[in-house]
Amino acid sequence: MAEPRLILYCDSDFIVPVVDKGDGYYEVFRGTADGCLWLYFYTPADNSALEYGRSFKAAFNNGRPGYLGDIWAAIDSDSRYSTPVLDSLPYTTLLDNSGIIRALRDFYSSGGIRREVDIPTVYVFAGNISDCARKRFIAHMQEQSFATVNYSLGVEALALAYVGRMRPELRAEFGQKVVFFEASGGDMMMRCYACDGSVFLPLDDDCTLSGMGSNPLRAALVKIVLSIMQRTHNFLREDDIPRETAYQMQFVDEWLRQRRDPNFGITFHYSSDPDTRYPCVVDNTQLNAIRDTAVAETVRRMATYRNSVARNDMLQCVLLGEAFDDEDFVRRCINNMGSNQLVTVITPDKMPELLSLYSTVVAPNASENLTDFDKIRNVESQARRAIGAWISNAERIRALAASTADIAKRLSEDAERFSREVAKAVDTVGRILAQPGGKFDEAREQWKRNCPTRNPLEDYAAEIGAYRTELDACRSIFAETDKFEGARAIIERIIQDVRTINDVCKNCANDDTAYKAICDAIDDYEHKYPRYCELLKQFKREGNVSVKRRLVQQIEDEKLTCEELPVVELAELIPVRLTASVEKVKTGLFRSKKVLKVKAELPGGGTLPCNSVLLIQDRPLASIQDKYIRAEYDKGEEGPFEFSADLPLPQCDGVSRLRVYFKPHPDEAIGINNAFDCNECNVEL
Questions:
Q1: N- to C-terminal Cα distance for the chain?
Q2: What is the per-residue DSSP string for 484-524?
Q3: Of 172, 285, 321, 429, which is the most buried if we count CB atoms within 10 A?
Q4: CA-CA-CA-CA torsion sign (495, 501, 503, 506)
Q5: Cβ neighbours of 519 (radius 10 Å)
Q6: d(Cα 118, Cα 96) in Å, to the nearest integer?
Q7: What is the structure's pLDDT at 15?
Q8: Among candidates 611, 609, 579, which has minimal Cα distance to 597?
Q9: Three-state secondary structure call for residue 20
Q10: Beta 41-42 vs 51-52: how paired, if at all?
């Protein structure tokens, strides 16, 4: 069994400790409520014990005497602090004097571990902690009997392992990327890793947004509270507001605990007059608007980075840090990145599980010496540049895949537009030819007027030729990259997109042929028109239903016309059982509404012999009027046919009785009493 190790994630504001017990299990720190050792301190004026804690952060940011923070910048600059009795102490001694070192020792040995030698320690630093601060911090820890095991492991490597555990369905392909957004202190750090076919490698595309890594809800709440108080009292000058904002930040967490109350009310006091209290009611809508403005800019900058480094290659986006405790902020990020499946969120409470993956990422016997710090960091920097260049060269296949996919997408879209235009021309001409009277000249005029835009094949000829040339040139590279599983998948996609392009080209050619064939169809129908008129005249004179049907079939078989074929009256009536009722439905505590419910059934499982309509009116049926048609059903439907509507109905307001009818559609040219054997259905209101 491997020796237990203490693993420390060092954020700008706190340290998250975990003990990797060496047997596949890990121990979570429970010495504080949130499992974090906060790097904000208070030196009491009475020289009592120096304290650390999260509650001191707001007081430090407000500049209150006796409060210390921003420890990494102070360590980097070799700053000093003083207590009531001691002067010029290095900031690293805050760890000793506050009890953080003692808490880490007790935590390591709490599981029955005998600590007879130095504590093996792994350091995982947030990206915005400088190299100088890291070295001085590690050196001080070594002086306190914490033996260095590793300090170069980036949190991204652990996050990749975490994503693999949480999203086992993900299968990274060659060239796909994971984009990291790490919020630490007030910074938002952005990095990108690319898959080389089997593992993820860091690219040299780091970027930091200063001041955009904080929880936007807290700052928005202070802003709106000060705005409300200024409108009410106007006690502050313009240059007082930044100082007052810093002062009020220490009360934000207390205010937010009251946010879910129906009336979001807080008690406010000014920094210059702490004894006078003022009530303040916050408008949640306005608060959300202010917060959303800040969030929108941060999310926009995050999306800009994502687009610049990943474009369409993003496999996963990782949001890591305390700022992503804000659910609305995370929701906006997820919406912008595409979907919940594309985003993994790692907040401080999930850091212990992340740190526990150390042994799965680093070799068991791996060890680093602090004297090699600069050398290791230089090698990392050079490796990032080399990996970026290699990925760029190796992505020629990806570039071809992107080009092929882009052409396939755009060509498909333009071909679909061309197809719609051809379909529109065909439909327009068809509707004219379907009108009685043989309007062939008008059909030809509309054929010319609805001429589609250029055939896409003419516009894409050069692009298709270029990608096919590149495809032929890359075939030799396919053999070299075929050893990468991801590359094989990309090659298969290229082949599939090539098939798509070929199919679209064929469809475009067919649509072009279809459009040009319209004119021939007009000539053909015009030539057959006299024959159609002759058979139609016979149909109108004929009284025998069988002969009528044979004439209609003859017109249809010879394709003599586009006009709607004449309708033969039905030979027998179809039984329909019609019911209607009025129900009262509650819509609130003291409110209700009336709902009319109608049901028509065809007993015995029959189907509609013609297109049909449901009529609801306040008078006996004489003819079918459009304004009383409530529902329409197609020929061949089986039912039952159900309809419901809130009362009163339009055109039937103020009546005490409604009449319900189920009849043939007026376009069927069937008498209203020649289709259905239907009971009369009335309903009293």
A1: 83
A2: SHHHHHHHHHHHHHHHHHHHHHHHHHHHHHHHHHHHHHHHH
A3: 321
A4: negative
A5: 14
A6: 16
A7: 95
A8: 579
A9: strand
A10: antiparallel
Q: Are 636 and 608 in contact (CB under 8 A)?
A: yes
Backbone angles phi, psi at 646, to 5 degrees: -70, 145
Q: Which residues of the chain have pLDDT under 50?
A: none
DSSP 8-state symbol, 62 = T
Q: Where are the beta strands (DSSP E) in 520-667?
A: 574-586, 592-601, 612-617, 629-633, 641-646, 657-664
- Orientation of helix 456-481 relative to helix 396-433, angle to 10°: 150
Place of tokens 């007082």: 240
Cite the DSSP H helix spans in 252-313.
252-256, 284-309
3-state secondary structure of 563: coil
- The answer to whether residues 50 and 89 touch, using CB atoms and an 8 Å cutoff, is no
Dihedral of CA atoms 116, 118, 124, 127 in degrees, nearest 10, equals 150
Tokens 């102490």 belong to residue: 89
Return d(Cα 440, Cα 446) in angstroms, integer.
Answer: 10
DSSP at 348: G
CA distances from 218 to 67, 117, 222, 266 (A): 21, 44, 7, 14
In angstroms, the CA 172 to CA 176 distance is 6
- Which pair of structure tokens corresponds to residue 622? 């004489």
Instruction: Report the share of the chain in percent with pLDDT over 70.
Output: 92
- What separation in angstroms does the CA of 470 have from each of 176, 406, 478, 492? 21, 14, 12, 16
pLDDT given for residue 318 in this prediction? 94
DSSP state of 118: P
Smallest Cα–Cα separation from 176: which of 158, 154, 199?
Answer: 199
Our CA angle for 441, 443, 444, nearest 5°, is 65
Strand, coil or helix: 18: strand
Task: Report pLDDT digits (tens) over 581-616.
Answer: 999 888 877 788 899 999 999 987 788 888 999 999
